[in-house]
TrEMBL record:
InterPro entries for the chain: Carb_Metab_Reg_Kinase/Isom, RmlC-like_jellyroll, RmlC_Cupin_sf
CDD domains (UniProt xref): cupin_PMI_type_I_N_bac
Keywords: Metal-binding, Zinc
Superkingdom: Bacteria
Organism in which the protein naturally occurs: Pedobacter yonginense
One Gene Ontology molecular-function label: metal ion binding
Descriptive protein name: ROK family transcriptional regulator
Organism placement in taxonomy: Bacteria, Pseudomonadati, Bacteroidota, Sphingobacteriia, Sphingobacteriales
């Protein structure tokens, strides 16, 4: 697709390419970074062109959503200005026929209008005329030979490899604007279909392709800006990832509005654009969509989180690496309903169902940790004792078809929410967060498999009804989670695990179906923790700020409500409270 005017549809600004352009706040910082050392990141097409000139023959591969036409024209301009004769080959010319690609991807996309597909078994090679691509030769009569675009490395040239990446949040802002299209498509589709194809097809094949290339990439390019790039040598990035995997780091969070979204994050995170209608979600650590930012001499370079897992997965996950491989299994995200609305009444699929229907390896087992709330806040969780499944299904269908409002508390229990409560939501459990909450959702990583049954008859931010999935839900609902059993099994009962000096470690037990557990460290001055070869995901849930020092001497400070990760290979760490009030730090980890 030819892009005349690159666009993105969002109120939120692109992460600055230069650190000096960031106004660092007192509290929560939306632009965390990990320092690479001096002179490891470079800015601009001119500097990249110098590198290419020295190599003479270069492969430029990368991700879907990159403005390839802009990248190609910018590099051509820089290289031509040096008086060089260029041979530029674009992989888009080797893509198979669009109808053929539509045909081979169709089986992974479900019915038209369906929200979900199934993770593809295709590879990137299936999208390309591989024989023709591999027949392309370096032409010695040119000063510079470039092959460029998604799948360029499949040409088989013996040449330096440049990889051009794009953060998932920017990809989706471009998608919302209709400025990009799916792999092998010539024009954008309707957004739901486009996202579905990205999630179940394009991202799957391109992530696998990136994994195969990661160790051989000579240069990583961050292409999230419309007219600029930052880049770093592969060796330096991989060294940074190795250092990160034995110390402490934050992923870059990103934020999205929603039908029920609230105002808590907008008021407490000053770098967020205040013109956005609300913020419903913070992708604190939803790693399929998070990036990691490196810094050097004031320049910022973002790479995808999966690069860390490809390079250092065993350091990150320790003894759980054999089970989860490159999949980082724990996610943290915020659900903000302050001055917003209730989430939909929903449930998530069983493990067998998500494997068979959608091709996922783990399912969406969740908990709600109440970071903040007001006196009227509540959580909907579990059925009333007298629930009648057939009767409940009938009223849901009537509501969906005829716009009938439900008194949902006839069927679903409503629990008062208090700060630091932990509500347990194993798959198949009916639930919803009520208004006036800031929920820290501690969960298994899958994040789009929500079966909505009742959405309070409201429309989404585009004025359209959100999809209701009663049939999917009723294939997964556990109707035994009702009555007193809900209080007994689905609301965590904290107990003191140990006390030492001014530190108290609380155990907030999760459900037997959850593969992760939760501790909370309450302390006045210092908490010292061993990783025991397990990855820890943490957040300061009360207090102003803490400073963390790991066994290798790495030090980072974190503000209230910031998520940070201690890899298993860090071995041990010390958390120092920087304020006069008590600090409370939540720690989630694999059982």
């Amino acid at each position: 697709m030819s892009i005349e005017e690159p666009m993105r549809k969002t109120e939120q600004e692109i992460m600055p390419a230069f650190r000096k352009e960031i106004n660092k706040p007192q509290g929560y910082d939306i632009y965390p970074y990990f320092t690479l050392g001096e002179k490891q990141i470079f800015n601009g097409y001119a500097t990249l062109a110098e590198y290419i000139t020295a190599q003479k023959t270069v492969i430029i591969d990368g991700y879907v959503g990159v403005y390839w036409n802009l990248l190609i024209s910018s590099l051509k301009k820089e290289l031509a200005s040096k008086g060089l004769r260029l041979n530029v080959i674009e992989t888009s010319a080797f893509l198979k026929d669009e109808d053929w690609i539509d045909e081979i991807t169709a089986e992974f996309l479900g019915e038209s209008g369906a929200v979900w597909g199934k993770k593809t078994t295709l590879s990137l090679a299936d999208f390309l005329d591989l024989e023709a691509l591999k027949s392309v030769q370096v032409d010695e009569k040119y000063d510079v030979n470039l092959i460029i675009g998604c799948g360029a490395s499949l040409c088989g040239w013996d040449a330096a490899l440049i990889y051009v990446d794009l953060p998932k949040n920017e990809l989706q802002h471009r998608m919302s604007a209709g400025a990009i299209c799916n792999l092998g498509k010539s024009s954008p589709q309707e957004q739901t279909e486009m996202y579905k194809r990205f999630y179940f097809v394009d991202w799957v094949v391109l992530n696998t392709h990136k994994e195969q290339l990661a160790k051989n990439v000579a240069v990583f390019v961050d292409a999230q800006w419309e007219e600029d790039i930052n880049w770093g040598y592969g060796e330096a990035v991989r060294a940074g990832l190795k250092q990160m995997s034995t110390s402490v780091f934050r992923a870059r969070p990103w934020f999205a509005p929603g039908a029920w979204g609230g105002q808590w994050m907008k008021h407490r995170m000053p770098q967020l654009d205040q013109n956005e209608v609300n913020y419903a979600w913070s992708f604190e650590l939803i790693v399929p969509e998070n990036g990691l930012v490196f810094e050097s001499n004031g320049l910022l370079l973002e790479v995808s989180f999966d690069l860390l897992m490809f390079e250092q997965g065993e350091n990150v996950l320790g003894k759980h690496y054999q089970r989860f491989g490159y999949e980082f299994p724990i996610r943290f995200d915020f659900l903000d309903t302050f001055d917003g609305g209730n989430l939909s009444i929903q449930c998530h699929p069983s493990l067998n169902y998500i494997k068979e229907e959608f091709g996922e390896n783990i399912t969406q087992d969740e908990t709600y940790y109440i970071l903040d709330c007001d006196k009227d806040a509540s959580v909907y969780l579990g059925f009333q004792q007298d629930i009648n499944p057939e009767g409940f299904k009938k009223v849901l269908e009537d509501s969906n078809e005829n716009g009938v409002e439900l008194d949902i508390e006839q069927y679903v229990q409503c629990h008062k929410a208090e700060k630091h409560d932990l509500f347990l939501i194993p798959n198949g459990t009916i639930h919803s967060a009520g208004a006036q909450n800031l929920v820290l959702e501690i969960s298994a990583t899958p994040y789009i498999f929500t079966f909505k049954m009742y959405d309070w008859l409201r429309l989404d931010l585009n004025g359209k009804p959100r999809p209701i999935n009663i049939e999917h839900a009723f294939k997964n609902l556990d109707f035994s989670r009702k009555g007193e059993k809900v209080q007994q099994e689905l609301i965590s009962k904290p107990s003191i695990l140990f006390q030492k000096d001014d530190l108290t470690c609380y155990h907030l037990p999760t459900h037997e179906e959850h593969f992760y557990d939760v501790h909370r460290l309450d302390f006045e001055s210092v908490a010292e923790v061993e990783t025991e070869n397990v990855c820890h995901v943490l957040m300061l849930v009360e207090g102003e700020s803490v400073t963390v020092t790991t066994a290798d001497g790495s030090t980072m400070s974190f503000q209230y409500a910031e998520t940070f990760v201690i890899p298993a290979a860090a071995r041990s760490y010390k958390i120092v409270n920087n304020a006069n009030q008590q600090a409370k730090v939540i720690k989630a980890f694999l059982k």
